[in-house]
Amino acid sequence: MSTTATLPGGPGRQSGQDILNLVLTVGLLPVLMAIVIIGTSLMSPYFLGWMNVVNILRMASFLAIIACGQAMVIIAGGFDLSVGAVVALASVVTAKAMAAAASAIGGPDILAIVIGIAAGLGSGLAVGLFNGLCVARLKVSGFVVTLGTMSATAGIGLLLTNGIPVYGMPKGFVQAIGRSQILGFPLAIYIALAVVLAMAFVQRRTLFGRYVYAIGGNQEAAVVSGVSIRRHLVGTYVLSGGLAATVGILLTALVGSGQASLGGDAMMLQSIAAAVIGGVSLRGGIGRVEVVAVAALFLTILGNALNLLHIDSRLQPIFLGLIMVLAVALDEFSRRRMSRV
Amino acid sequence: MSDADLAAPAKPAAIDARGSRILQGTGWARQLALPIALVLLLAGFGLADDRVLTTYNLLNIAQQTSYLALFAMAQMVVILTRGFDLSLGPTVSMVSVAAALAMAGIGGADANGIVAVLAAIAAGFALAAACGLFNGVVVSILGVSPLVATLGSMNIAIGVATTISDGRPVQGVPAAFADLFYRGSILGLPIAIVIAILVGGVLAFVLSRTVFGRSLYIIGTNPQAAAVAGIPVKRLLVYAYVLCSALAALGALMMTARTGSGEPNLGGTLSLQSIAAAVVGGTSLAGGRGGVGSAALGALFITILSNGMNLTRIDGYVQMIVLGAIVILGVVLDRLRLDGR
């Protein structure tokens, strides 16, 4: 940073430099988030209302859980386009299995609930395993493989339901998981917190987490150091599929039916956006899940704020697109500056 | 038609030697795999349903292929440089809506619609060029990864397309426009096929016989080497993205003429379909490999597949699964081809 001090420039330029330096050191995310929160709370009385805050946190939890998995895959140098479709598939499979088990067994609800959740999670893990095996064993680009599984998974979800919502789940499931509250907050928020904390621990303190960084940072070096690339690559995709399935199950419990229209492309794109805005480098090897979770919160707040300010929903994608490009461009810019100094 | 032919014909001896090595390494069986698969596919569908192999349906397939081929060629140009364009589909929607709005705005002011058609062409290409310029500048000068850059512009283009059209189809496309881009025919061939063949021929010439085209292959094969060799990498990358968007705009005008109105959802899944067509045809996402022939073959393959599945009344959801499987199979084959060298 010593070069900036010697630069000649007027006061206006200096303050511009200051703002730039602030953004570069603190990061774009907290600055933007503060602007959005302060600006919206001044303009809309509903924004800081209890209902709205809980709603924002709930929606941010879903996005944060998916984005954590996406972040792990991207840090290892891959990509998972199938997460949105996995949400839909897990929702459908959970509802179908739970309804079937409830009518077949008849006994206590808890058994049917466990069977349904296991089936839903299993479907997500299976898609993740397929993605991971294709990427690691056949050495095919993650982007294209998950592009393929995205189409196939969405097709399977629609085929299973014919596009019609699946009902017949035990009431206990919806009440216990979808609508229950602890200390006034929905269960989904606690699950998201637990996932983010667990993932942060995994990233920092476990071999798997460290190896994922090593693989994404420099695959050749990781191989030479004796890291089993294949196993850990498969692991990241399985993790991503499992987390996406978790969100599918939580959403199913929230809406009370299994729907093939849950998740979808929008959720997949938002999870990538959250990871990227949260500082995960698409070149791999860099990124922290807790920052990604904050980015997911930011994206949810932004969408909520745009709605409350009555900004046309058709204009909203433009904001998302611009912020994403801006965040990554700034990241790239600060990295170049650092490497120059 | 093969990739190796297109990668080979550069004049310098060093590149010639590399080209001949590729030819020896790949072998004819692998080069002919896709054409043979095409014939088998067509024969199989022909046996399953006797409407498949009629002149009417074959002409129909050719016409549908020409749209997808244009988009696959557009995508191929940027994939050659290790990029891709996720904003292609929304660009198509945006151009369609803008062109229709331009024509509707001029309306009945001129008798035979020439001014309206020219205005539509100008508006469409201007918007597409702006989008391509944005992509190119963000990718090459700001150094943002193509995925994030075009994901951003994808959102922006969706926002623009739905905002200027109010989310509704735009009516008022004059007959002259439909005559020029859809209804006309030359030597008995529908105009769409003629345009696709002409554009494909010019693009093949540009890619294989001009400095610009050869430079794109070198940038994709080894960007550092290209920069060291004095190729203006950044400028050519911007050109590649603008060319991609311009080709997409041409396809968008043709599709608008076919539907007879500006559709804000016209692009839909085209981004992914065009990537799938290019990749299945043998364009490598690692950059530097591919050509007009591979893009056209990939487009033909996907069109025949979906046409045949439609005529044999295969469920639309199953078609999604098959398309996903084909995309994965395409990249796996591509990987095997690379390993074969």
TrEMBL record, chain A:
Keywords from the UniProt entry: Cell membrane, Membrane, Transmembrane, Transmembrane helix
One GO cellular component, as annotated: plasma membrane
Signal peptide: none
InterPro entries: ABC_transp_permease
The keyword Cytoplasm belongs to this UniProt entry's keyword annotation: no
UniProt membrane topology term: Multi-pass membrane protein
Molecular functions (GO terms): transmembrane transporter activity
Name of the molecule in the record: ABC transporter permease
From TrEMBL, chain B:
Keywords: Cell inner membrane, Cell membrane, Membrane, Transmembrane, Transmembrane helix, Transport
Pfam families assigned to the protein according to its UniProt record, in alphabetical order: BPD_transp_2
Single annotated GO MF: transmembrane transporter activity
Major subcellular location class: membrane
Chain segments annotated as transmembrane: 28-47, 67-84, 91-108, 114-134, 141-164, 184-207, 236-255, 314-333
Topological type in the membrane: Multi-pass membrane protein
Top-level lineage group: Bacteria
Localization per Swiss-Prot or TrEMBL: Cell membrane
CC per GO annotation: plasma membrane
Protein name in the entry: ABC transporter permease
